[in-house]
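S.,

Sequence below, as promised.
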Amino acid sequence: MTDPTSLDNLHDIIPFSPQPLWPPAPGWYVIAWILAAAAAWLLITSALRWKRNRYRREALAELALINRGSPPTGDELAPLPVLVKRTALAAYGRQTVAALTGEPWLAFLDTSLSTTAFTQGTGRLLIRIPYQPKAPLDPAEAKNLIHLIETWIKKHET
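The prediction came back faster than expected:
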């Protein structure tokens, strides 16, 4: 009689055959479709955002031409009000922006950036520059104005 607990009665373990890699399980198809849809959505929204913000890139490029390093003078800053107005027209449309001048224009710029830098700060120069291009201008004020306009172009709410 043999002992049932004897090691001689042990058999080798038979391993399972490896699962094939192809075709994948149905869950992988679902994951692939979800990833493809997410990638397509991300690509489309990125392209639309890029297209929608083209006016910002062009305005920043023009601002860089105006601000070429040394503090600009009043004559060199003369195109700034036109640049800001054109940028606002591109962002908000003619009906909203075209008729605004003076204090209402500055108030609109303040509202679109959630600040008071245009009505109470260096942004007031936008009203003075077109009419007094030869007036002396403090280099620090000019630099602050350019920085304010750059911030407005980058961050105004549309």
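Residues 60 and 81 are 14 Å apart (CA to CA).

Coffee later?
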